[in-house]
Automatic annotation (TrEMBL):
Name this protein carries in UniProt: Pimeloyl-ACP methyl ester carboxylesterase
UniProt domain AB hydrolase-1: residue ranges: 91-346
GO molecular function terms noted in the UniProt entry: catalytic activity
Species per Swiss-Prot/TrEMBL record: Antricoccus suffuscus
Domain of life, per lineage: Bacteria
């Protein structure tokens, strides 16, 4: 009996010891997490205290002259806004990137509306499942379908008027998707194409070999994509707990090494946060398998500008260099000190280059443009 009591006391001591150990581990983990949260908040606050040239910029609040919906070939409603006269000589269509919306062209919308020769009508739209556009089935979140969406936008917004296409990141891939399915448009109705911070393929492999952490590319992104499909609500609710960490990651990987002012990082963060996690997952597969090198020859029939920041960590310089090799008559312009969001962080330089490109494309194809007008 005494032996049993002693044994019981021994188990009790072990249990108390284990409880203390577990409690210690949990407490230590909690303390480390608190330190992490505090350090992330400190880092964000330090950026917010710095001078901000965009503090008074009304991101996401620019007014449109017209807005409407275009129904895609599979029935998804695509939200469209226009700026400029319906009678303008040239229609410029902007296709935005992955997890963003039409607001990513904020500065171009302000600068290019001042063009007078040629007069322009700018057409902005939210890609399917992004911004104000309708939700797509996961199986239709492909570059080919984005290309078909762009074709419907051109049909509705431009009719037979001459068009210039400007695509950023996934938006540039969208243009390549259109070239793959309807290459005859290029050099005929499409007078010029500007490909900003984009790729013709091999995106994930380049990220793996480039400046993004190997663990993030090889393990975290695929796992997040699978998790978003399996349990989107759980991942969505978890976003709030890592908001400062996400903000710092976005600022680091979307912009150049100098970093973006707080208000600019805030705006990009808001656009990304507004994209549901399962939409992020839906498009990840098509981006991982994207390969449109074979579609590029169609672009040789029109004016082409390839532009990329020299500090782009998402679609590094080699992607733009490949595009330039495949399109030997294209202009390759490298934006110094810029990351993936070059058209926002170095907008004045990008806007000037786009203006020169638009004039060049219109002048080169002026006989066709006059015939269509």
């Amino acid at each position: 009996m005494a032996a049993k009591k002693a044994k019981a006391k021994g188990f009790a001591r072990i249990a108390r010891g284990a409880g203390i150990a577990v409690g210690g581990v949990v407490g230590a983990a909690g303390a480390l997490n608190a330190i992490r949260v505090a350090s992330e908040k400190f880092a964000v606050d330090r950026v917010r205290r710095a001078d901000d040239p965009f503090a008074d910029e009304h991101f996401g609040e620019l007014k449109a002259d017209r807005d409407y919906t275009v129904v895609a070939t599979d029935g998804v409603p695509i939200y469209v806004e226009e700026v400029g006269s319906p009678d303008a000589s040239l229609v410029i269509v902007f296709a935005h990137g992955y997890t963003l919306n039409m607001g990513s062209f904020h500065f171009q919308r302000q600068a290019l509306r001042k063009l007078r020769s040629p007069s322009v009508r700018m057409v902005f739209y939210d890609q399917r499942s992004h911004g104000k556009s309708g939700r797509s089935r996961a199986d239709d979140c492909t570059i080919d379908q984005l290309g078909r969406d762009l074709r419907e936008i051109i049909r509705t917004a431009a009719g037979d008027r001459p068009v210039i296409l400007i695509g950023h990141s996934m938006g540039g891939m969208t243009v390549m998707g259109l070239a793959d399915i309807e290459g005859e448009l290029f050099g005929d109705q499409v007078l010029g194409v500007a490909l900003l911070s984009t790729s013709a393929g091999n995106v994930v492999s380049t990220l793996r070999a480039g400046r993004m952490p190997k663990s993030l590319v090889e393990r975290a992104l695929p796992l997040l994509a699978k998790g978003a499909q399996a349990a989107p609500k759980a991942l969505e609710s978890a976003r709030g707990g890592v908001s400062n960490a996400m903000w710092l990651l976005i600022r680091r990987f979307s912009f150049g090494s100098a970093g973006a002012p707080a208000s600019l990082a805030d705006y990009v963060d808001r656009m990304i946060a507004a994209t549901p996690v399962d939409v992020v997952a839906d498009f990840y597969r098509t981006l991982a398998g994207h390969d449109k090198v074979a579609a590029l020859p169609a672009l040789r029939n029109c004016e082409v500008l390839v532009m990329c920041g020299d500090e782009d960590r998402i679609t590094p310089m080699e992607h733009s260099e490949l595009l330039a090799r495949e399109l030997p008559e294209a202009e390759l312009f490298v934006v110094p000190g810029a990351g993936h969001m070059a058209m926002m962080e170095k907008h004045e330089l990008v806007d000037l280059r786009l203006q020169a490109f638009i004039h060049r494309a219109y002048k080169r194809s002026r006989p066709q443009a006059k015939k269509r007008a």
